[in-house]
Design a protein that fits this description.
Radius of gyration: 17 Å
Bound molecules: zinc ion
Order of helices and strands: EHEEH
Strand content: 15-25%
Number of strands: 3
Strand order of the largest sheet: 1-2-3
Shape: elongated
Number of helices: 2
């Protein structure tokens, strides 16, 4: 399985970036913009790999939400600061 890394910092913490007019040139060579969440650099990856970036971003979001719940469970006092859903 191909893993997409940031070419600047090597992080896998990437997300699909918003499409801009300048990305059209990249689209012609089948590349789409992604943003590195670690160093904020914007670059382009093959359209064949963008699905992998999306899945990674979704998995990471789910994991972050899970960790947030676990943190709240470990620190019950935290719930007094906001409404419990
Ligand atoms: Zn980076």
């Amino acid at each position: 399985m191909t893993i997409v890394h940031c070419h600047v910092c090597g992080s896998r913490n990437l997300r699909p970036s918003h499409f801009q007019l300048t990305d059209l040139a990249y689209l012609l060579i089948l590349r789409l913009p992604v943003r590195c969440r670690s160093c904020r650099v914007r670059f382009h990856v093959s359209i064949l790999k963008i699905g992998k970036v999306r899945r990674d971003a979704e998995a990471r979001r789910d994991r972050d939400q899970h960790e947030e719940r676990m943190t709240q469970a470990a620190n019950p006092d935290w719930r007094t600061f906001k409404d419990h859903k």
